[in-house]
Amino acid sequence: MDDMKRATIKQWIESILHPAIGAKPRRRIDQNENAFPTSQQKRKRDSTEESLTMPDFEPPKRLRPPDNDDASTPPLRNDVSIPPSTATASSRQRQRSSSPKRIKAGLKQASPAIKYLPSVMDPENDAAKELFSYLAHDDEPNPWQPGILEVAKLSEASSKCKVELRSEGSWVIQVAWPLLQLAVGELPLDCWSVQTETVDVRYQPKYTARDTFNRKLDLVVGLPIEKWARQYEAIAAVGIDGSAPSINQSMSHIDHPHTGDRLLGIGFEVKASDGNLDEAEVQLGVWMAGLVSWMWERRCGTPTPPPVIGCISIGDQLDFYIVYGVEGANGELDRVCVWGPLSDLSGRLGSHKSTCALIKTMRRVMQYTSGRYVDLLVHCIAGHTYGSM
């Protein structure tokens, strides 16, 4: 080896043993040191490299919800369950149909259908027209007149409930109930509260939204058994379609031990002054449709059940409706028509004159119920059995 090569090797060895000033020595790994850097060392190295390579502009970071252990954030509840989103077109349609007006329109698709007819329309039913003519014309030689004191009390109670913005319960107790009692008078009828009694499922109109509304009324006028024993015996002796009587057959469409065993007539729905007419008409229509369905189920032969009267009072305004069934092609009940409100019969509780006129109209309703209505109903169900008793 010549002197030049020897000098080059010596210079290389010197550079390793004594590095130049400013040169960064190569780091050796001690035998006792872990070959993998610790997390603290790694974070320190990453921060150093980031400071050398990070550009001046930093893009926005995605926001992250705070940790659960943050003192300013309340703990998450585990008692709330959120159902999965399974809304379909049909379920959304049912949700939109929750308003009384939509439900009322949808009853046309029920079975039997419930059809609402305004007073200006022809009901195309002779019995309904005849009943309307009877209620609208008081041509008796000695017409019934309510007492002056009773009229004054009823007018005062109505005005008080209106001024004090009383609830529906007050209108029922202080106005509607005394009105019915005054109109009944000595007639063989009774008034019953049915606020907690619902229509039997057998006689409810069948349609998809039937559980989205109230199917109850406030008051009903019916026939007490002790005053109509002969009529009750005639109906009890005949089963459905003229068959043998059944122990489970009822005297009305109501699922209740008392009212279900009574013959019923007028249905009365009461609302406060801010009540919704569409909601009241839905309740009245469904309730009366159940009564008509019961009549048609119990009828024997071809006679058509008689029309029945329904009433709605919203505050001091009272409206009357005539409800009747229409036969289908197969001889069964096809639809129930609710004709009204009948403007010629409607009235308002207020002055002595208007209150007296309204009471007299209600009196004719009671006279029809205890007269022609009962006769037609019993003949329709019992037929020749009733005539021979």
UniProtKB/TrEMBL annotation:
Domain PD-(D/E)XK nuclease-like: 135-373
Chain intervals for the UniProt region annotation (Disordered): 18-108
Bias-annotated ranges (Basic and acidic residues): 58-67
InterPro entries linked to this entry: PDDEXK_12 (IPR046797)
Basic residues biased stretches: 93-105
Protein name per UniProt: PD-(D/E)XK nuclease-like domain-containing protein
Organism: Aspergillus cavernicola
